[in-house]
Amino acid sequence: xxxxxxxxxxxxxxxxxxxxxxxxxxxxxxxxxxxxxxxxxxxxxxxxxxxxxxxxxxxxxxxxxxxxxxxxxxxxxxxxxxxxxxxxxxxxxxxxxxxxxxxxxxxxxxxxxxxxxxxxxxxxxxxxxxxxxxxxxxxxxxxxxxxxxxxxxxxxxxxxxxxxxxxxxxxxxxxxxxxxxxxxxxxxxxxxxxxxxxxxxxxxxxxxxxxxxxxxxxxxxxxxxxxxxxxxxxxxxxxxxxxxxxxxxxxxxxxxxxxxxxxxxxxxxxxxxxxxxxxxx
Length: 281
Prior knowledge:
Blueprint: H1 2-7, H2 10-21, E1 25-29, H3 47-58, E2 64-67, H4 69-73, H5 78-91, E3 98-103, H6 107-120, E4 125-128, H7 138-141, E5 147-153, H8 160-163, H9 176-185, E6 194-198, H10 203-212, E7 218-220, H11 230-237, E8 244-248, H12 250-253, H13 261-279
Parallel strand pairs: 1-2, 1-8, 3-4, 4-5, 5-6, 6-7, 7-8
Helix pairs in contact: 3-5, 3-13, 10-11, 11-13
């Protein structure tokens, strides 16, 4: 199975995981030691142990895992992230890994960030900021079979500051997030590697993004602790052949503050997965 993973593109892996695990749920790995349960609490050396237990408990329920790199780097735990990536590839080779890094730079710097994501950590996809234009995205697309999710309409209130502004210089005066979606669906998507990040707290705008980008995978954070509605999210974004990856982090990984945290994470992941699946019908 491990060898099979490296023969498949990110999109192929995504489709296979969706079918095998009957899931649209992405388990976000945002480890904060002060929130760890029981004897792990406050110990940054236990980040790997905590996350690996979550992975083991949810590997058959997820369409993807999404480690957020800042939660590791802040605690000098990049080595633990490397171990975790290896662990995920070993125990859940059918589940693609999206490295949540939100990188956004150009030229040789972007090339190095791409090496970091795809070669150092072995991620199957990465999140990017498209603010600096296509030459900040292109280096990632040179890595055959890998995926890249562009920030489009994010779930934070400050997203309105830029994403919801109209572009007077473009025909039809689209909103900025609509323009990003059109670029990702069209001229930027050279090898079919792009997807979009759209927050679950704006289901009407998820639906608008889906209309503009009918085939792209959508990574949708904000279900769970951030208050996004799972059913509304699925109805707005899921279409046959156009996958959605609905992320829940804190609601799953901190479902219990006791030693049963992995079992509690599994119960919450199962509940969320089933709610998402039911919404398809």
